[in-house]
Amino acid sequence: MDWTGRCVTVVGLGKSGVAAAQLLHRVGCRVAVTDERDDPGTRTAADGLAAQGIAPIELGRHGRETIAQSELVVVSPGVAETSAPMQWAMAEGLPIISEIELAFQHCPAPVIAVTGTNGKSSVVTLIARLFAAGGRRAIACGNIGVPFSSVVGQLSTDAVAVVEVSSFQLAWCETFRPKISVLLNMGINHLDRHPTRAEYMAAKSRIFQCQSPEDWAVLNGMDPDVVALSDLVCRAQRVWFGKNRTNPPGLQLASSTQRIFDGNAQAVVQVGRLAGLSDPLIWQTLREARGLEHRLEQVATVRGVTWINDSKSTTPESLCFALQRLPGPLVLILGGRDKGLNFELLTAASQSRAIKGYCLMGESRSRLRAYLNGAANVHEAETLDDAVSTAAAMAAPGDTVLFSPACASFDMFRNFEERGQAFRRLVHRLGNGVPVSAAS
Ligand code: UMA
Fold first, then answer.
1. How many CB atoms lie within 10 A of CB 154?
2. Rounded to an integer, what distance in angstroms lies between the CA atom of residue 434 and that of residue 294?
3. Residue 167 main-chain phi, psi, to 5 deg
4. Residues 132-161, mean pLDDT to the nearest whole number
5. CA distance 323 to 316
6. pLDDT tens digit string along 106-133?
7. 221 lines ligand 1 (CB under 6 A)
8. CB burial class (10 A; 0-12, 13-18, 19+) of residue 71?
9. Which residue(s) pair with 30 in the sheet?
């Protein structure tokens, strides 16, 4: 769709809003931006856009007149359908698209889109590395922290956009059509935005909505909800991982592959094969893959205690994944934005392994305490600083302190990256700045 010369309003001035405004400006739209917050973060972003000639920029409120003057509204993923600007846009009958849809409409490269409840960022990173190993330019973007709109200008037709898409980003998509879609698993998340599981699943299913039989969907055959959803709405050719259902020739997963690689790595294998990459190259890339920032990232060993940053964990499932991978006695720091999730997995984990202490923080802290069944050694921390110093006091040499919040970060930080960086700084301060592993 060509919006050149038209008046477009971008709602939200976080990472996606800035990138969308710049893309729209570049393609010749008259761009307005509105954000309900007026704080140092939005002011810096607004100054940057104003310096490029983008105006008007409205901070501290959403004006109905700003929306009413628009011919198109581009919405950031964090802006809910129930919010005032969305309600006004709908009442005015204005077209509304998401930042992902905007980027897709301007993307010359084929798109591989990855969604699911857990493991998306790791899979997106691995797929991009795999393409790079095969000599093909690929950019990992989307919910992983790099807005899709910010990279479309760098992509040519022979490159690949590997886009992590959240349920929020799949709303307001009209033509978004990945050549390969990947649905990793279907837990439950974001009950604040998707009040029922059915609505959450419907949001995720939009990844398939514009695909046709010339496209591919890589799906988790072990997850009954993924299977049921794809039976209902997926018209792309289906390729399974996790369990061999009938896969097209050349895409069967040998039982040895299923033993060596976990489900999400098997999804990467299938995407690589669909792209024509050889099995030896795929195996080698997966074996060489190193850990990601903010995902079970070892920050330091300070006086014999190992500190792990898992700030990317925003669900109980991610926390359990971390708990399964870290042996030995643990002190756990968790909590954050309360999305109304069920933390029964935490109750089970607290009973089944040695957790020496809990530091609970953020909006969810008192609700989390209720799931701990009266466990001893629970501290409700006012700040991350307080949580880190208390965890340091609870841990003994040989223990691990795991920071795996299992909640979103927005009650205390701008995003999970900022939360992970703050954690790292506090840990390094404990070790007086001595780098990883040396600070014992
Ligand atoms: N805002 C309004 N009006 C509203 C609501 C919000 O003006 O009604 C403003 C806020 O004041 C703020 C801005 O919108 O200034 C924030 O926009 P945003 O929440 O969409 O955040 P971005 O910085 O654009 O980041 C978004 C994703 N955030 C969310 O989905 C909440 C980032 O995913 C993503 O990395 C980034 O785009 C680039 O694509 C983060 C996330 O937590 C990591 N995602 C959730 C998750 O993984 O669980 C889905």
1. 12
2. 19
3. -60, -35
4. 95
5. 10
6. 999 999 999 998 889 889 999 999 999 9
7. no
8. middle
9. 7
DSSP 292: P
- Among 145, 62, 147, 100, smallest CA distance to 409 is for 145
Q: How far is the CA of 78 from the centre of ligand 1 (A)?
A: 4
116 lines ligand 1 (CB under 6 A): no
| Residue recorded with tokens 């934005």 | 337
CA distances from 328 to 213, 285, 394, 399, 427 (A): 49, 30, 15, 7, 20
Which has the closest alpha carbon to 431: 295, 311, 305, 297? 305
| Tens-digit pLDDT profile for residues 58-88 | 999 999 999 999 999 999 999 999 999 999 9
Rg value, the chain, Cα = 22
Rounded to 10 deg, the angle between the 344-352 and 316-325 helix axes is 20
Pocket mutation for ligand 1, best pick of 314, 415, 416, 418 (most atoms within 8 Å of C-beta): 415
